[in-house]
Amino acid sequence: MSSVITEPAADVVCLGLGVMSGAVAAELTAAGYNVAGITVGPYWDYQSDFFMSKYDEWGIGVMRKFDWPLQTSSFTIRNNSTQYANPIRRYTYPIQYHALGYGVGGAAQHYAGSMSRFGPWTYQAASMTASRYGPDFLTSIEPNADLYDFPMTYEEYDPYYTQWEQAYGVCGTNMGPLVPMSENFPMPAGPRTALSDLYSTTAEAMGYNPYPHPSSLATQPYVNQYGVQVNECVYDGWCGELCNYACETGAKANSAFRTVPAAVNTGKLTIALNSYIFRINVDPTTNLATGVSYYDSAGNVHIQPGTVIHNGLWGTNLFRIEALSGVGTQYDPTTVTGSSGRGWTYGYAPYSGTSASGTINIGGNAYPAGNASGGGTDIFDFADDNFDHTGLGFIGGSNPSFGGYLGSGPGNLNLFGSAMSPSNIGSTFKAKLKDVYLPTKQVVSSTPFAPCIPSTQHYYDLDPHHTDMYGDPLARLTVDWGRNEFIGATYIANTYVLPILQKMGATNAAVSATVPPGSAHVDWWGAHQRGAMRAGTDPSWSVYNRHQQSWSVENVFASGEICNTFGTFVTAGTHPGGPLSYVAAEGIKMYLASPGLLD
Predict the structure, then answer these.
(1) What pTM was computed for the model?
(2) Which of 218, 468, 495, 590 is most deeply buried (CB count within 10 A of its CB)?
(3) pLDDT tens, 152-207?
(4) Contacts of 38 (CB under 8 A, 6+ apart)
């Protein structure tokens, strides 16, 4: 029988020590508070854990040796409420290439590091759409739309963006006039490729506003606001592909090498490693959280008391732990009431859509030489509401990007992973390997999907059929693609992307056959989940207020992508989630100084 161990009380208990909780821990310990961090997995050391062992394409890409073991806990997925949800049982390459994080730093230990802010429209998409196109425009596109504004404007979130960008060392210049920034990114962009330069000069000549693609892979040595030294990227090419490889120099920004060290150095942070959180404990009399319960690796139950709880778990688990603990009101799609699990949208676009493509007569180096998110150029002119959508049948847009490093990852599983044939075995194939890795031409393509609109039919709840290894229900995701994504891709590919490719001198430039709505269904999952635990102005549809404070249990705060009220495909989502951690840290300080529901 396991024992129950009560730990010394903390001012703040951080659930997880990934991107979100790492920033909260750094801010609260710097302010003099005692913080307890609880996380699954170890505290990875990039020198001893990654320096040599990361060069293992099979072990990382297929066996997922640095990732969360799904046999402990997973989640289930279905397209609609009439279906039986199937559990995610394995990380299956090449169909399912996303994997969950494990340990301090979370999945950001091996993400691509691709960054981008949301634009101003995203934060007020509901009200701005109604104001410009009329109150019925949105429901004419998506009859079950469940879109709301963020509780603050982009301008109000800007200083929190800046704090997070400085902590993580985001690289680039800025995002141009359509996404105004009070300060540029703290580090310069990485070297651009020849294709990136061509795209940039062409777009600028056509009157658009190109900028270097933002990245969190350090381009030079850097010291952040906490005094943490950051090493620069060595561009060894074992960075991208298979989402993705850990970094042996610490250049790939994550909490383990950016924010948690600062908290550790204060002496105010205690860390429980290899621990599985299973409840936020709520006193039914006061309706306040009293602490957190978790299992250690030996199966012992620990109780970590705390004055404030910060939920910084990965999105699905963020929802699940609060649902299991009775924090918030579960969303009911039949009555369209409740807020917990409501308003889910994807951080990933469909795998099939109308695209524009062509061949550019510029060579490249596809050997492992580069990194996962540097070198490219973006434009924001076709994103958000930066063009007139009257009569188009969709909202939002896309930010086409070209010119990233070809050699961002080893790519051998892509090259050799299919059934044996003359295309991947034998002397003829071997003789052509040089041409594979040193192409003299590049095919460029863009599928410019418009955003996924929150729907009353898409949500999280607890699955009545599947449990984790301890017997608690798994989270269940009900989701499918909508109309907006596909209609937007068809219009933008034809109207904007194709003319750019033609101006760049692409041969065979063309738009694919139209891929209409309903052509693809969600049959895989990705790490970037957003919207199901929304921040907002009304507890009837949002879980947290503008301070990232729970409406229902006032000493529970949370931050993460899943707390975003809405999101677009201009970024996978780590970057816009980061500022919410600084909003939460500020709110926690306010609460500790004067407990109660913050206004």
Answers:
(1) 0.96
(2) 218
(3) 999 999 999 999 999 999 999 999 999 999 999 999 999 999 999 999 999 999 99
(4) 13, 14, 15, 16, 17, 271, 272, 275, 277, 292, 294, 304
